[in-house]
Amino acid sequence: MARLPRLTVAEFPHHVIQRGHDRQLIFRDTADQERLLVLLGEYASREKVAIHSYVLMGNHFHLLLTPQTQTGVPRMMQGVGRTYVQYFNRRHQRTGTLWEGRYRATTVQTDRYCLACMAYIDLNPVRAGIARRPEDYPWSSYAHYRGLRTDKLVSPHPVYWQL
Asked: pTM to 2 decimals?
């Protein structure tokens, strides 16, 4: 039986999560994290998807995205997923799946949940106990929003500017 397509709504934010198979690491070093960030930027631009917030953890990552089209998120995630797995398997001399399954995506109610979702994503390393403060963790959008660095991957959501 064919899988049902996910609900993707153009111009609405989506919280996306992709996990490693059996909770295995999907990043072994900084080169892996840097490669995924490059791919996210390339495919987001190609598919017209704004990335508002992100965090790369050891065995998963979170994104807050707003697509301009209904096909933006699925095409972006398919491209990133396939390309990153090929890179990872080749670089680490392995074969097989890297992902737990399909990415999970939830449409976010802009006014009620968007800022809370951004905070949830950026505070993930602190909750996981791998950083004492969110600004200590280099693989998230937190430093961009604090003005500690400029992150060309991040495109603030209009709700952020309403603060």
From this structure: 0.93
